[in-house]
Structures are given as structure tokens and as C-alpha cells.
Amino acid sequence: MTEVLELADVVKSYPGHPPVHALAGVSLTVHEGELVGIVGPSGSGKSTLLHIIGTLDRPSSGVVTIGGHVVSTMSDRRLSAARSSLIGFVFQQFHLIPSMTALDNVATGLLYTGANLTERRFKAFEALQRVGLAHRLTHLPSELSGGERQRVAIARALVNKPAIILADEPTGNLDTHTGEQIMGLFHDLNAQGATILVITHDRELAEGLPRQVHIRDGRLESDSAATVAA
Ligand SMILES: Nc1ncnc2c1ncn2[C@@H]1O[C@H](COP(=O)(O)OP(=O)(O)OP(=O)(O)O)[C@@H](O)[C@H]1O
């Protein structure tokens, strides 16, 4: 199986008296085609891990490899160019552009690829089809339900076929039923081959995922994949 993500002894410390070790030596391997929940209580280090896996921040020490690229030492310029092919982000608050149609919101996921507008819109259309929103292309975010907004955000995340889809509390802003539909969509996309990491404080949500990694006090507390393998 191909390794898509590897964290090797990742430490992230914030200066202070005393310093805070938000990540205190995290090692984790995720293979292509996995659907993994990273679960932990408030203050456990989830956001810090999200920023580091998402290449938005760098570890104090340790190595992060995504899709075969060592991103922890990559220059900012190369990272900016590569990020959308490495990571597709899905956030709790959707983060759509209010003045843009669903189609153009998704097409923004291809802005740094060099594709022209026609190509970007065509790929955006295909991505919206994959999330079941081919009938909502010209709607603005304000004309969509919460679940539909999150589907647009998921289409934007996957439009450039990133190595990993990284979802931060993706159901946190949705009612229970809609949240279950969004998790169902992640399962479908995963069955089609997408590698997906869901970061959440919600143990129940994580229990519905094939692999769960628990984090506490900046350390991996347990990994269901390791339990199965042991
Ligand atoms: N910029 C920062 N400077 C100093 N300490 C920080 C900084 N960011 C996070 N921390 C500390 O690092 C630890 C982990 O924080 P982090 O935000 O990663 O946890 P979390 O699991 O995402 O929490 P929550 O679910 O409440 O957002 C906490 O003790 C936090 O106070």
C-alpha cells in the first residue's frame, strides 16, 4: 500500500514560561485509500496537527511527508504552488465566497493550477456532480442549505484530486441528520479511492470511521489500526 502521509516524531512547541508542547512527538502513517478519524478533547493538539498536516504551519522538529514530498522543509513558494494538489480542506464553517456561484466556488480550487476558466469550470462541474449537486451550479451560497454548502466545499476540496482531503469538524455546523449525510458522502468518496482525514472532538462520529486515532496532551494515545495489526 502506498503511504500518502507520514509524520515522523513531529514536535510543535510554542514559546512561553514554560513552553507549551502542543505536539510532543507524533508519528503516524496513513496509506492511500484510508478514511481516518483523528479524535481528541479540547486542547489535545488537534488544531496544531491540522495546521501541520495541512502545510499551513511547520513542526519545531520531525518530518512531514505528503504524497512522497517532504513538506516540512519545502520552501514557502513551492508549498504555495503544491498545496492544492497535496491537501483539499473542508472546514466546519464551509468558507465559501458569498458572491460566487457554487460552480465558481469549486473552480477556485483550481486557481493555482494554470488551467483556464473553461477548464476550471468543467472540472468544477464534474466535482459538483460527484457530490450530488449538479442541479445547483448557479446558486449562491446564501441560496443553499447548510448540507449543500458543505457539499460545495467538499467538491472544492476534491476538484484538484489532492493526495489527502483534510476535514476539520466537517459536521460541526450541521444538524444530526445532515451531518450523517455528509459523513455518508465521505464514505462514498473514500470507496471511490479518496484518502480522507477527519479531525474532530466527537468520539461518536469517529467511531463510524474505519480507523480512529486518538490524541491527548499532544501525543497519540491509541490507533485502531495498530490495535488491529497487533
Ligand atoms: N499559538 C499558540 N501559542 C501558544 N500556545 C498555543 C498556541 N496554539 C495552541 N497552543 C496550545 O497548544 C495546545 C494544543 O492546542 P490546539 O489548539 O492544537 O488543541 P485542540 O485540540 O485543537 O483544541 P480545541 O478543540 O479546543 O480547538 C493547547 O494547550 C493550546 O493552549
Automatic annotation (TrEMBL):
GO terms for cellular component: membrane protein complex; plasma membrane. Pfam families: ABC_tran. The keyword DNA repair does not apply. SMART domains: AAA. SUPFAM superfamilies: P-loop containing nucleoside triphosphate hydrolases. InterPro entries: AAA+_ATPase, ABC_transporter-like_ATP-bd, ABC_transporter-like_CS, ABC_transpr_LolD-like, MacB-like_ATP-bd, P-loop_NTPase. Keywords: ATP-binding, Nucleotide-binding, Transport. Residues 5-230 form the ABC transporter domain. GO terms for molecular function: ATP binding; ATP hydrolysis activity; transmembrane transporter activity. Gene3D superfamilies: P-loop containing nucleotide triphosphate hydrolases (3.40.50.300). CDD domains: ABC_MJ0796_LolCDE_FtsE. This is Putative ABC transport system ATP-binding protein.
